[in-house]
Amino acid sequence: VYLDKEFASTGVVFEPLKDRKKSFLYGSFQWCEGDDEEVIIMFSTHRVILKGKRLGHLPEEFSGQKVRRVCVVGRADKMLSDNADVKTAVVTEIKIDRLKDEGPEE
Q1: pTM (2 decimals)?
Q2: Is the distance from CB of 23 to CB of 9 less than 8 angstroms?
Q3: N or C: which end of the chain has fewer CB within 10 A?
Q4: Of 16, 102, 25, nearest to 62 (Cα)?
């Protein structure tokens, strides 16, 4: 998870392992909720579900438009993230669902 520390971002990019990257403008952001293991982010046309570890702070970061990019960690990074000293969010899965049919799937 890459955060914009100084300014609010205009949008966010999600990078699942097996699907195409998708980006959304914060103008279409509706709400976000979650806990340390799962976070749901709602945009006007899509629902994004993040699964992982230490995700509990992300709802506040999305509300403040601070999240710039979310990537799924690779296998080696995942093994390193199990270290008790690591405090950052670790995303192991990104699922993006289209809410309503507005033309061809991207």
Answers
A1: 0.82
A2: no
A3: C
A4: 25
